[in-house]
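Teaching assistant here, posting this on the class forum so everyone can see the example we discussed in section. The complex has two components, and the goal was to see what a joint structure prediction looks like when all of them are supplied at once.
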Amino acid sequence: EPEVTQTPSHQVTQMGQEVILRCVPISNHLYFYWYRQILGQKVEFLVSFYNNEISEKSEIFDDQFSVERPDGSNFTLKIRSTKLEDSAMYFCASSANAGGRGAEAFFGQGTRLTVV
Amino acid sequence: KNEVEQSPQNLTAQEGEFITINCSYSVGISALHWLQQHPGGGIVSLFMLSSGKKKHGRLIATINIQEKHSSLHITASHPRDSAVYICAVSGTDKLIFGTGTRLQVFP
């Protein structure tokens, strides 16, 4: 069964460092998402991406964050100058159609980011 | 006020019991999703529905669009059903998540 793959599963980084979280969405999917879940809290939307550009982003997704689909298969989330409050589980998701049309989203296993 | 509310927040049950988790939402939606999150953190989609009822094995999901309410039922619960169950809604591209219901089923 096709799946969304995220790497690494766990990353520890020093405050102020840059991190890149990687995702390989399901191959025929067109819509890509990043969500995050701070420990003990609900999952929050960060950004959606379609046709090589951001289609929607949340207030959380400020200039510190960027996304890229560099080679047609990978989908990356870059966090510049990490802060302690960036520590969270980051989930990548993909869907065949837009969520607004009621498309099922498939999630990766997550990357647990710890900023020390 | 949260756009998606779930109840209860925590639920314990004995193996074999019938479980119900409720979800209410306050925004217009195109679909409602029930998701399962295991202790390792991964999220798995259980159901996506926009009307009526869906069944998969021992799991049943219902939605009432007029009342903006959905329920997830687990029949004959089993310890392996222990997980966090999350309700999420989609209106625009993104999903809006509820806070989840932590279910523990004891043998």
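For the discussion questions: Chain B touches chain A through 25 residues (CB under 8 Å). DSSP finds no helices and eleven strands in chain B. Think about how each of these relates to the inputs above.
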